[in-house]
């Protein structure tokens, strides 16, 4: 396999002019590059665009030149600044805002509003809006030939490629100043085949075929209408057929039904050498293995993926917490209680999220009476702290998702950094191990409260070697995360300190979990030995596939 340079360019490198045609590594003159851009635009049917920051209409200066603000457009942006749906409609923005900026130049090198108050004039009055780390150009991709044309252009000009979907990107891999981006968000088809047979195979599956840009909420509504369940992410606008499953993809249903990567039975993809291939267990099986957890667009640009479905399931839902009544002392008690309950909950199929002094869990395996008994001690503690506790039965995943997720999903427009660690089931299964976890959590509470995703495939019948994520996923009960954040006007030094602090604090969880791993899509930017953390024993095979 010919290797294409998918790695993104640094945001401090120069551009030619206001049209931001990158001169980086180009093997042609600037005029020749412009000519090639014109030919590329003709090849893709006029769907090659110059990228601009979404927030630009609010500013009077762009990349050092005067521009005229558009008050009506600015007002619309301000009104929808924290809407994930609105952000998916615009190329020049991300759900996590720092990835549209050049962080090394902050508070310059950006074009952001104040997410806490988008109408705050201090963010845009007399401020130079800069392209930051947003790619220079993008193709609104509709066909495999669009990607093939972009690859040919990249090889000819030396301009590198990036791939952007819905903008749910914690690590900034879908940006890159000076790159030509492939925007796949509008590849959003959804279709069902209850007897889907992967090409060249004989086994059939009840399956859903989706484009990379199909929103999770749209998918959940579609499968609910046909009495099915799709294993997907915890946000309304995740592109479930893109980087989500390519990096592994956890769900609150993963403890029973597996990661998103486990559910995929076929992928259609344009590879870095420009081939449009079908990958499944029966053909291009090494590529299929690599796409199921290898991460991002490392092995190609996905056009569609087919995922196994489950029948519609009845869920027991627990929503328990004492938000507004927490302090360091009762948080430590709370986490200790949760740690002590976790192994039992794992055997009962519970999955969900712990956000400081609150949890939302679901299980398809228990009756309502069993669920209430399982959560009794946790409910009692929350109530004793002035909190609330609800354990209810819901008829489908969509019913749960619609009620609980829109108010609980991660906010967009913010700037955050993450560090994560998979906490092994072995540690939860001993008194000493549980004490170590609880103490390690207590030690970080003065800095931040861990955000815990209970989305590891603990009960899933996993076939070793079938996916390329680290095998640690299948022997863990928690995917624990720490996060740091900052404001739109923070300095580069403060931002760097946040990245460093998160890396240092998550190290304490690495120390108690030797041999475990982390989540590729939500890892520490300074993750040590990242190949082992993200892929473990699968890395050698991934590397060999990449080098073909």
From TrEMBL:
**Signal sequence coordinates:** 1-18
Q: Which Gene3D superfamilies match?
A: 3.30.465.10
Domain spans labelled FAD-binding PCMH-type: 131-312
InterPro entries recorded? BBE, FAD-bd_PCMH, FAD-bd_PCMH-like_sf, FAD-bd_PCMH_sub2, FAD-linked_Oxidoreductases_BP, Oxid_FAD_bind_N
Q: Does the keyword Signal apply?
A: yes
Q: Name one GO molecular function term.
A: FAD binding
Q: Which domain of life is it from?
A: Eukaryota
Q: Which UniProt keywords apply?
A: Oxidoreductase, Signal
State the family it belongs to.
Belongs to the oxygen-dependent FAD-linked oxidoreductase family.
This chain belongs to the protein called FAD-binding PCMH-type domain-containing protein
Species the sequence originates in: Rhodofomes roseus
């Amino acid at each position: 396999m010919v290797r294409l340079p998918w790695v993104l360019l640094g945001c401090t490198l120069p551009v030619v002019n206001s049209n931001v045609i990158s001169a980086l590594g180009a093997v042609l003159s600037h005029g020749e590059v412009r000519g090639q851009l014109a030919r590329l635009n003709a090849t893709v049917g006029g769907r090659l665009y110059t990228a601009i920051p979404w927030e630009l209409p609010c500013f009077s200066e762009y990349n050092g030149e005067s521009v005229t603000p558009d008050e009506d457009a600015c007002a619309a942006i301000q009104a929808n600044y924290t809407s994930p749906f609105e952000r998916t409609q615009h190329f020049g923005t991300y759900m996590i805002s720092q990835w549209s900026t050049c962080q090394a130049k902050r508070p310059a090198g950006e074009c952001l509003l104040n997410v806490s108050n988008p109408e705050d004039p201090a963010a845009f009055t007399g401020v130079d809006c800069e392209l930051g780390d947003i790619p220079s150009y993008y193709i609104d991709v509709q066909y495999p030939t669009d990607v093939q044309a972009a690859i040919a252009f990249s090889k000819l000009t030396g301009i590198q490629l990036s791939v952007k979907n819905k903008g749910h990107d914690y690590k900034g891999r879908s940006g890159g100043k000076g790159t030509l981006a492939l925007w796949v968000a509008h590849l959003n088809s959804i279709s069902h085949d209850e007897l889907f047979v992967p090409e060249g195979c004989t086994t059939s599956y009840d399956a859903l075929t989706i484009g990379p840009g199909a929103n999770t909420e749209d998918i959940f509504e579609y499968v609910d209408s046909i009495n099915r369940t799709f294993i997907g992410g915890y946000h309304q606008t995740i592109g479930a057929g893109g980087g989500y499953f390519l990096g592994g993809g956890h769900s609150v249903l993963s403890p029973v039904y597996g990661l998103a990567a486990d559910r995929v039975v076929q992928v259609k993809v344009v590879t870095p050498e420009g081939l449009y291939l079908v990958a499944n267990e029966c053909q291009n099986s090494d590529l299929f293995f690599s796409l199921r957890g290898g991460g991002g667009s490392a092995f190609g640009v996905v056009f569609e993926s087919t995922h196994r479905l489950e029948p519609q399931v009845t869920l027991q839902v627990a929503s328990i917490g004492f938000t507004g009544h927490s302090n360091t002392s009762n948080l430590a008690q709370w986490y200790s209680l949760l740690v002590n309950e976790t192994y039992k909950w794992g055997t009962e199929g519970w999955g969900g999220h712990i956000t400081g002094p609150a949890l939302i869990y679901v299980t398809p395996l228990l009756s309502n009476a069993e669920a209430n008994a399982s959560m009794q001690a946790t409910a009692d503690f929350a109530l004793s702290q002035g909190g609330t506790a609800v354990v209810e039965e819901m008829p489908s995943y969509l019913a749960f998702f619609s009620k609980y997720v829109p108010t609980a999903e991660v906010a967009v427009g913010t700037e955050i950094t993450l560090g994560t660690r998979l906490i092994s089931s072995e540690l939860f299964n001993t008194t000493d191990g549980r004490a170590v976890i609880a103490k390690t959590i207590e030690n970080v509470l003065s800095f931040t409260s861990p955000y815990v995703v209970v989305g590891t495939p603990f009960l899933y019948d996993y076939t070793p070697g079938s996916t390329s994520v680290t095998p640690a996923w299948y022997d863990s009960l928690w995917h624990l995360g720490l996060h740091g954040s900052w404001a739109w006007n923070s300095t580069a030094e403060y931002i760097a300190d946040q990245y460093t602090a998160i890396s240092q604090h998550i190290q304490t969880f690495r120390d108690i979990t030797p041999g475990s791993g982390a989540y590729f899509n939500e890892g520490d930017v300074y993750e040590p030995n990242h190949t082992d953390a993200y892929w473990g024993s699968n890395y050698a095979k991934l590397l060999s596939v990449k080098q073909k």
